[in-house]
Structures are given as C-alpha cells and as structure tokens.
Specification:
Two copies of one chain form a homodimer. Chain A contains 16 helices and 17 strands. By secondary structure, chain A is of the alpha/beta class. At the A-B interface, helix 4, helix 5, helix 6, helix 8 and helix 9 of A face helix 4, helix 5, helix 6, helix 8 and helix 9 of B.
C-alpha cells in the first residue's frame, strides 16, 4: 500500500499546511505561480498542478487575471449545536415512510441530493471494465461455481492487509464477505440482540439503521451527538446507567447525517467503556477511505481487545455501489454472524468479489481515491458556498472532512418534509430530517448528498431549493 | 421459447414412446441401426445420434457387437414406502451439525456426493463467458450503479415470460430478484410467519429449510411423503385439523431428498385446500427445468387464485451456482417480501442479473437444458445401476424423473451418520438421513448428489461405499 507521492502533491500539501497554520488567511492572495516556482526551484507546470489540486479540495480559488486566493472557511459562524434529547428506547415505525421517499429519490428524472450513493460518474468504470474483462476471460470456472465459505479468499486476504494497516490486528479468517454493508449491519444486529432488545444509536442517525432496527423488532435508543465529534460519550454513559442496552451501533467516521468524525481518543474510550460492561459495538466504517485530506482515523476495531467490536464496511461508496460487496470483521461473534450469513444467502457472488479484490490489489485504488475525494471535496465546497449564499439567515450547516453527506439545520419552525414534497415536484430529491430520528427533534433539518452527478448545476439547484425554503418560511 | 427439434430428437422421442408403451420391453433388442434407417427413410448418422440420446437418458444400452437393448427399469422392486410419522411441531436444532457436515463435503479433495450443487462442468461456461464479456464491454455503467428496485427489469421481463409459459399469470412487476433461492425462501418465511409459529414441511425434507426454520425460531411440522407423489395431502389435511399451521413450504418438483414429482392434480388440490383456510404456500421450484424428458409440471403457483402461493426459484442448479441469482413471485405478500429484501441487502448485484437475463434471452438455455438433463439422467442411471449391483439386499432407492438427488433407504438397523464418518475419511462425501428430518425416522437413509464431477468413477465410488455399508451392517 506504499505510494510514491508526486512532487505536485508535496507542494500542494505544503501550501495546505501554510493555510492551516494561518500563514495565508482566508481572502489572502497566494504568491504568484512564477514566485512559487522560483522559491521552490520547481517547474511552473508542477506549481500549476499543485494549485489545481488545492482548488479541487476547495482550499483556494482562482480569480481571472489576478491569481489564487485562500477561500473563506465555510459556515465557520454557523456550527451546529449538540442537541438535547430525551433518551428513551423506542420502537421504530419509519420504514414505510422512508421507503416511499427513497423510491421518489431514485427516479431517473430527479436530481438526487437524497440517497447517498455516489453517482456512477465517480466510480472507476474503465479500470473495473478492464479487470472484469480479464476475470471473465481467465477465471470463468470460479465465476460459475459456489462454495460454502466466508467469501473469496483473495478478497479476504487483501481486506485483512488493509485493515492491518489501519491498525486492526486480524487476518483473512476473521472476515466474512457480505452483499453490501447494510447486509453486514443486519447480520451483526441479529448476532448481538433479539426482538424487543434495545440498541443505542446516534441521533440524528443513519436511516438504514432505523429501518433495520424496525425490521428486526428491536428498540432504538437515540444518543445525542456532538456537532463535530459524533456520539456524545457522556450521554452514552448516562444511558448505560439507565437502560439495558444490548448493543451500540454507530458510524464513527463521517457519520450519517452529521458528517462528524469521532476523535481517536473518543474511539478508544468508547471501546473501553463498552468492554467494561461486555456490550458489543457495531462499527459502520464504510466512508473511512473518503477523507478529503487522505488521512484515515483508526477505526474503533483497532482498540478492540475482547472481540466485542463488529466491524462492517463495503465498496459501495468507494468503488461501485452496484456490485454489492461488503465485509464484516465480527470479532467474538464470528460464529453467530457466519450462521446468519449462511441462512441469508449462503455467500456473495464470485464475480463481484474477485473484481473488487483485483481492483484493491492493482494499486489503482489509492489513485482513484485521490481523484474521487478531491472531487467530493469540491462538490461539498460548492454546496456549502451556495447554501451560504442563498439559504436564509440562521441556517447552520455541517462541515464534514470526508464523505458526501451535508446536513442543513434550518431556522425553526421549519418542516423538512414539506420541503421534500415541494422539491420532489420540481425534480430535486432531498432527505427530510424526519428520516434521521424518531424523536421529531430534527424535523426542521435536511440531508443532502453532495456526490450527485457532476453535471448538476449546484448553484442553481441550491438557489431553487432556497427559494422553496423561503416560501415555506414565509407561509 | 419456441425451438425447432432436430430429426434425431424426433426419432429418439418416437423410440422412447415405443419403449414406454411396451412395444419394446426391458431386455429386448432394438431393431438394428440399418433397419431403423431403412424403415424411417433417414440416414444412419441420424439413427446413431438418436440411439446415443436414448443411451444418455439411460433408456437403452449398447452391447458390443450385438446392438442396442432396452434397459431394465432400475429399482422397480425396490420402491420406497410412505413412512408413518408422528406429526408434532418441533423446534429445530440441526444447523451446527449440518454446517459441520457441509464444510466437510465442500473440501477440495473430496468426491462430493453430498451438497447438491451440480459440478461446474455441467454449467454453460463458454456461453456465459461470451455474455459476460459483452456485458462488461457495453454495459459497465449499469454494473457499477445500484438502484432501489425489485431487480433488473430485463431479467424480470424474461422470467415473467417463462413463468407465463409455465401457466402462471403474472408480470415482471410481480417478481423480486434475490441472491439465490435460499434467500428467497428466507424472505418468504419471514413474510408469512413469526418466531414460535409452525410451518409444515415435507418429511424427509430439504435440510436448508430445516436450517432456515431454526434460524428464524419457527417450529417445523413434518408431513409424510408418498414415495413418488411427494407430500401426502391426506396427512396434511389431518395436520391442518390438529395444529395451527402458519404456512406450508415444499419442493413439489423433484423434491429434496426423495426426488418425488407431485402430480398436477395434487398441486391443484393442495392450493385449493390451503386457500380454503387462507394458509400461504411457499413453493420451492428450483429444479423444474431439470426433467429428464424435457417435460415441465405446472407449478402450484399456476393454480393460485388468491395470491397465497409464494413462488421461489433460482438459476443456481440450472445455469451457475456461483452467480447467486434467484427470484420470488410472492403473490399477495409482495409488500412484506419486498420490505425484508430491502433490509437484507437492498438488491442483487447488477452484473449477475444481466448475465442470467441475457442467457435466458439468447435462446441457448433450452439447448443447454437438453444437454444438461441428458447428462443428469445418465449420471443418475449409473448411480442406480451401481447401487443395485453393490449395495446389500433390502436396499431401496428412489427413481426421480429429474434433478440430481438420489435417496437410498438402507436395511435397518443402519446409521447413515456412521457411513458419513467412514466415507469422508476415504474422501467420499454423502448426506446422512439425520439431516433430512428431526424425527430420527430416516437415520438409516443417505442422500446422494448424482451431478458430481463427470470424472468421478461412479461404479468404483459406489463399490467403495457399499463395502463400508456392509462393514457397518456386519459390526
């Protein structure tokens, strides 16, 4: 997984650090291309490439005939607040409603700012095509035959290697391949609890997790989140004293919908806190490769000494959603998860597993991620800028450092569902806050998918949305 | 789906009919090739091809320097008896044991007469390879992107067409694509019952169904089966009076393990009997394309007027087990099944769905089936002959008219599990009767997969098994 960094990337990183440290502040003009090339003794082309990289990442902006300027940090004054929630385990009844909304978001004539699958454009189609052609040509016997196994060995080998690099001590035999991350979460939930049991989750949280909890007949206990650090450990501690919690299920990295990234020390503390009471933690880590700056926060699994962390991830947000390849490191629950996997569908298809394995092994994954996260950062930045510009005073927005989800907290009273209903009629899909909690505390919020098709005119779309917001606020 | 039949096939069918009608009886010599060619005014090559076809189907045998003779029907005197069972709903605890056995069957150095997936050899690798290469080349965008749908439209269209031809009035919108048939059965079971409920199944029955029932916390009520007609409707009628049965789940066509084919009038009566009490029927129809004579018995679904039949099938036994493509026509339970499908894994991968759709549409499926079923019939016949020859007096064997599963009922007292343990040590995998019932009534039986690799020396393998059987009987 070692990669040689190009010179332009080194220069981009240096400039990024100078901006972070305040050497160049928002609004400042950067030195000219010629100056940068001279002082660093590098070519003009390299400087240009580095500045393009910074532009893609939303850190600087080119002004015609003038030069490159440091961007204003978006939403600095509009940071989210930690919500205060009454914590009571609740039966969930969100699915039917959610399902209707998703089907409308998925219509072909709609600008999808709703469902958080990246548009096909961002996926490495050409490379996957080459890999698939080779697999089909040389390994068709493997494609047609099924085996009673935890998944393709080659895929589990490369995943184990990557997880080791992320700080998790495990090997291929600790992994089970699934048909996507949602299947993984479902299997883990079935392995650790039974109908009627309470599972603690983030609030606002991932709608799919609410739906899974509903489909299994469990109860959800919503734990408040810090606006940048994710799950409030203090609130969880309190909840653990009050309630009989069978498991905790969270998205520590670029959470859905808040986009928070739980600090590594919190992860460690969370794992220890739960280990002390032998409570399993289901960790949904499917976005951790999508940090805008290429960093990777250690997953909770890295701190798991008792095998109580059930780690789930997938290639659906990073490589191809349509291939439905996910994986689980279920720790001490391996046997239970394997059992439920077998009686869900025996195993994942071979062709998709081999394709993902070959792609991860090809060395092209890192390059793809650099391209992809740069575009995601750019998309996110454009959304943030447009919202700043067009949405009403008092709007707060999240500032994720990775992933593709933006959270917009509108001035109350406001009804996210009404905005959904208006917007979908005009061909724009969003997710109303109603789908992110059973507490009704986030009904005034909306969730946006920034990884929409790059052909979408973001400014115009947000301007249209803002107009609807204003109409609703004035009615 | 219209196919032009070759001349040699017509001749083979005519000769088959003459044998069936008794014009040529077991042991009779057929007219010589020259005679057949002259009387029918066809070429010698065509007659030879027709006789080869009959030989493949196990109907005639070539004797060197003599000619073709009509085979003895196998096991005529050894027909199975309808077992008498106490019918009481039971909690199931079979999985751990079954799982251990399956993993041993799946080992690479073992002759697999256990797991009933056909060996890769029988699957149409070359055609699938061509189709896959084209899909990869021309439709990669569809491969990488996911949609919230009931499955690929093209696949559902062609499946609906085939089901219409089989007598089921339904269209593409009535179908949900699954990751294999077992997933389909699991989704249907979840849709019609809840933990603690009783589901009536065949006895002996399909081990996967027992395991599913166990994994869902349901109870199984085992209904006795007739040796050729399958589920005893009289016994089911009695059970319906006695117990609160939430659903019936059976394999009417080439059942597992008995290989029975429920007569069409029984299917009609079964559907009507259950409809009168509004009890859903889960129909596992995955082997119905594998009749040795190319016939197709109408599925129960064809008689379903109230939407109470949940029809499940897959391409895993007919086209490729490793692609994990199945489908459900859930009738009135569409909404529930769709709900559980979404929260199992959203949807099946696109590439495998498109490949199966293209194959079914190519017109090459019928040709493949003719090839495949001829080979299956031949394999089955060889197994039956070898068992007749080497197994002890008193052995009874099934005589399925399709599929790949053979059932061997050994003279009691005998322990199928002990035979498994001996055989696996010598590299031969079988399924002991213990996995086909929770009543212990079939512990003396074994189940064999006849679709093993064609390189397996059947006579020698059965001779080895027979030796172990005799040793066990004499101890």
């Amino acid at each position: 997984m070692v990669e040689i960094m190009n010179l332009y990337q080194q220069v981009a990183d240096e400039l990024r650090d100078l901006i972070k440290q305040g050497t160049y502040r928002p609004g400042d003009k950067l030195p000219s291309i010629r100056q940068l090339a001279t002082t660093r003794k590098i070519s003009i082309a390299t400087v240009q490439r580095a500045l393009e990289e910074l532009e893609l990442r939303g850190l600087v902006e080119a002004k015609p005939k003038s030069g490159f300027y440091v961007n204003m940090p978006v939403g600095e004054a509009k940071i989210l607040k930690t919500p205060i929630l009454p914590m009571v385990p609740k039966s969930i009844k969100i699915h039917e409603f959610a399902s209707q909304i998703f089907h409308q978001c998925d219509a072909s004539n709609v600008i999808n700012l709703g469902i958080t699958y990246p548009a096909a454009h961002y996926f490495p189609e050409k490379i996957l095509q080459q890999i698939a052609a080779k697999v089909v040509k040389t390994r068709i016997a493997e494609v047609v035959e099924v085996h009673f196994s935890a998944g393709n060995q080659e895929l589990r080998d490369v995943l184990a290697k990557r997880l080791n690099e992320a700080g998790c001590l495990l090997n291929a035999d600790d992994l089970i391949v699934t048909n996507g991350c949602l299947e993984g979460l479902a299997l883990c939930l079935r392995a650790v609890a039974k109908p009627g049991d309470t599972v603690a989750i983030e609030s606002p949280g991932f709608v799919g997790l609410f739906q899974l909890i509903e489909s299994l007949g469990y109860k959800a206990l919503e734990i408040p989140c810090h606006p940048t650090d994710g799950l409030s450990l203090e609130a969880l501690e309190l909840a653990l004293e009050q309630w009989n919690i069978k498991a905790v299920a969270i998205v520590p990295t670029f959470s859905n919908p808040l986009g928070t990234n739980m600090p590594v020390e919190n992860r460690k503390r969370l794992v220890e806190m739960l280990a002390a009471q032998s409570i399993p933690l289901i960790e949904d880590d499917l976005l951790s490769d999508l940090a805008f700056d290429g960093s990777r926060t250690k997953p909770c699994k890295a701190f798991d000494k008792k095998g109580l962390v059930l780690y789930c991830s997938s290639a659906s947000k990073t490589i191809a959603s349509g291939m439905r390849v996910g994986w689980i490191a279920p720790g001490a629950f391996y046997k239970e998860v394997s059992y439920f996997k077998t009686f869900t569908n025996i195993s994942a298809p071979n062709i998709t597993q081999i394709m993902i394995a070959e792609f991860l092994k090809s060395g092209k994954y890192e390059r793809h991620l650099r391209y992809f996260t740069a575009r995601l950062a750019q998309q996110m930045y454009r959304f943030q800028q447009a919202i700043e510009k067009y949405f009403p005073q008092g709007t707060r927005i999240s500032r994720p450092k990775g992933g593709c989800i933006l959270w917009v907290d509108l001035p109350q009273p406001f009804d996210g569902l009404k905005l959904f209903e208006h917007a979908i009629k005009k061909g724009i899909a969003i997710i109303p806050g109603q789908l992110t909690s059973a507490t009704n505390k986030f009904n005034h919020c909306i969730r946006l998918n920034c990884a929409c098709d790059p052909e979408v005119d973001i400014e115009k779309t947000i301007q249209n949305l803002a107009q609807m917001v204003n109409e609703l606020l004035n009615n």
